[in-house]
Amino acid sequence: MAKMNLLQAINNALITAMEENEKVMVFGEDVGHFGGVFRATSNLQQQFGRDRCFNTPLTEQGIIGFANGLASQGSVPVAEIQFGDYIFPAFDQIVNETAKWRYRSGGQFSCGTLTIRTPYGGGIAGGHYHSQSPEAYFAHTPGLKIVMPRNPYQAKGLLLASIRDDNPVLFMEPKRLYRASVGEVPEEDYTLPLGKAEITKSGTDITLLAWGAQMEVLDKATEMAQKEGIDAEVIDLRSILPWDVDTVCESVVKTGRLLISHEAPLTGGFASEIAATVQDKCFLNLESPIARVCGLDTPYPLAHEKEYMPDHLKVFEAIKRTVHY
Amino acid sequence: MKDRNHLSNVGLVHKVSIIENGLIDIPMLQILKPDGSPHKDAVVPDIDQELALKIYRTMRFIRVLDERMVAAQRQGRISFYLASTGEEAASVASAAALEPQDMIMSQYREQGALAFRGYSTEAFMNQMFSNEKEANKGRQMPIHYGDKSLNFMTISSPLGTQIPQASGYAYGQKMAGEEAVTICYFGEGAASEGDFHAGLNMAAVLNCPVIFFCRNNGYAISTPSEEQFAGDGIASRGLGYGVKTIRVDGNDSFAVYAATQKARALALKENCPVLIEAMTYRLAAHSTSDDPTGYRSKEEESKWQQKDPIARLGAWLKGKGWLDEEQENKDLETMRQEVLQELKRVEKVPVCKIDEIIEDVYDTPPWHLKEQLSELKKHMAKYPEAYPKTSGRL
Fold it and tell me: What's the CA dihedral at B150, B153, B157, B160 to 10 degrees?
């Protein structure tokens, strides 16, 4: 075990993967000698050479197009998009190409070895284009997996699992926690399962569900609710696609109440998908409407960042409303 | 070249001098004249009789296939088709200059390259009829071929997407130490997509052994090339990216062959991309959903019919004494019969079982796909007559 922040855990996972398999290649804007604008790829070029860790020209559609070709050839690309906000130029490559590669070729070819890493999320005064949480756009795309870790331990285990998984994975890293989240991380190799949620606290009165950086917010709100005698069960979804319906529904059957929270805007956010599924599967167990505590349906604002965010106070109020419905 | 890109190495001028005459007229390599005789100073590539005839026969096969399948679409037997009439030399002669281990990433009008690699008439038919024997399992529209055993990447409809992909594929081949390149075909319209820019720039900067092969056939559906670009075609752009470039007569099999052969050798030796712009003309309609009479004249088309790539190589072969015309005409009839027979046979092959609808989305179907398939099958069992292609085999 070693104390690592989230970036160090990612760096450690990349080193583990590159040592294990010479076909693993890491590339993107500024990831080479410089080691990435967040330093997630520090020393990789020095350790593994320019052929395996390199800068690309500044072109997101190029990065993912290149990665698609590389993956279909049998290499194991780990492509970085500098901010989730800039993934949209690559939207066509990801949605029309990466995700459909295996299906459209009848399984002859695939991009299964591809992992796309990108920092996401607000809370860092990033304004419109350094704060977005675009997971729901991609959750509408069959063929992709989407993974979002909440701390360094998760980040390493889930990233290694993503790189080794035989499906393209969009790995979204909560950049607000890059340095803020520090924890014990095994130095040896380990993976955490994709598609599996994790119950981080068991409880009986309400199920609280989130992912990534939003888990911290849930934890704070849970503590506040506890003081008012509300015993919440807390779940980290970890994988957005495919998501772990069983763990979530089992919990809701037990608690009878569900609150889902994400930073991304409410309308069309992934909470809508979860809410619709849970009301379908747990209709007779639900004792109150499913609550969604999300970002506003606005672009991500700079000056009003605090007001925009679905913070612990908003979650706390929603817990009380739901429990006392 | 790369040192020049550093700021400190930029040459100086001291008077305002906007470059206005940068449109260099890049010449076009032509070895065979339209009448099939070689130019005096041209070097005819070293092609033996067997290879020359294989190129010729593959082109003729493609023309037969195209004619037959356009008709089949008109009869409603297949949903869609896209002919390559007039452009057969561009795809066939370039594929002839490659090795079987080279990856082909195509746009959709390069069936000639696939036929040259040995894709069978049956395989063509299986794909177009979307049946259960088709490699893509009937999931894509007709003409979206793909064959892993022939190193022919499955085609997709979005234009230009294969260009940066080819750069990445070639990079992987280089890293794996393979004696192989990737060839990437696209039209001049697709070259307006951002992916063209991304793909060429990345290949040049990252030293990828890839051949970018542009079929400049004058039209992107109804859009003539003068509404597509204002520069000197596609070739002039290669130079801006630091990509070795050549323009060839796309209706001259030998020009296409010689340029592709040289490009392959360069790409392998120097780990670099090469751009080939093949000038040709889309004699066919864009697709069976298009009628070109709305945007171009018969006179223009007939002018290009005089430059037919098949007739040109045929004339050269005759001059060489390598072509027995009587035998060729018999062979042509045999090809027509074979295509028709395969068409009739293959159109009776059923489509895949409904279970295939959820396979290959992921490596294994996750819970939600299994749940959706199970619901679908229950529904189909209730209304079997509404789903005649699959309900009999639930």
Answer: -130
Q: Does A242 touch chain B (CB under 8 A)?
A: yes
Which residue type, as a one-letter code, is found at position A157? G
Cβ atoms of A160 and A24 closer than 8 Å? no
Distances (CA, A) of B217 to A100, B185, B188: 29, 13, 7
> Residue A312 to residues A176, A206, A218, A292, B314: CA-CA distances in angstroms?
16, 16, 6, 13, 78
Q: Is the pLDDT of residue B1 over 50?
A: no
Q: What does the alpha-carbon distance between residue B381 and residue B394 come to, in Å, rounded to a whole number?
A: 8
CA nearest to B262, candidates B237, B240, B244: B244
One-character DSSP codes across A147-170 = E--SSHHHHHHHHHHHHHSSS-EE
Please compute, for residue B179, the number of CA atoms within 13 A of its CA located in the half-sphere on the CB side: 3
Radius of gyration of chain B (CA): 23
Residue A225 has what pLDDT? 98
**Nearest-CA neighbor of B151 among B130, B173, B121?**
B173
Separation of alpha carbons A192 and B360, rounded Å: 23
Instruction: Give per-residue pLDDT as tens, B11-36.
Output: 899 999 898 876 678 999 999 999 99
- Nearest CA to A245 among A206, A210, A213, A277? A277
Whether B316 contacts chain A with CB within 8 A: no
Task: Return residues 130-169 of B near A (CB < 8 Å).
Answer: 134-137, 139-140, 144, 146-148, 153-154, 156, 158, 161, 163-169
Beta bridge partners of A146: A170, A241
Phi-psi region of A151 (alpha: psi -120 to 50; beta: other; left: phi over 0): beta
End-to-end CA distance of chain B: 63
Whether the CB-CB separation of A141 and A99 falls below 8 Å is answered with: yes
DSSP string, B176-238: TT-S--EEEEEETTGGGSHHHHHHHHHHHHTT--EEEEEEE-SEETTEEGGGT-SSSTTHHHH
CB-CB contact of A252 with A285 (8 Å): yes
Residue B10 banded pLDDT, cuts 50, 70, 90: confident
Helix (H) or strand (E) holding A248: helix A245-255
| C-alpha span between B329 and B324 (Å, rounded) | 9
Rounded Cα–Cα distance for residues A78 and A241 (Å): 19
The residues near B5 (Cβ < 8 Å, ≥ 6 apart) are none
Token pair, residue A173, equals 């890293």
- B101-137 burial, b at 16+ Cβ within 10 Å, e below that, comes to ebbbbbbbbbbbbbbbbebebebbbbbbbbbebbbbb
Tell me the pLDDT tens digit for each residue of A80-122: 999 999 999 999 999 999 999 999 999 999 999 999 999 999 9
User: Cα B278–B281–B285 angle (5° rounding)?
Assistant: 130
Residue A70 near residue B168 (C-beta atoms within 8 A): yes
Which positions of A are catalytic?
Answer: 60, 130
Which residues contact residue A130 at a Cβ distance below 8 angstroms, ignoring those fewer than 6 apart?
A: A83, A85, A124
Cβ distance B164 to A242 less than 8 Å, yes or no, reads no
β pairing state of A24-28 and A198-201: unpaired
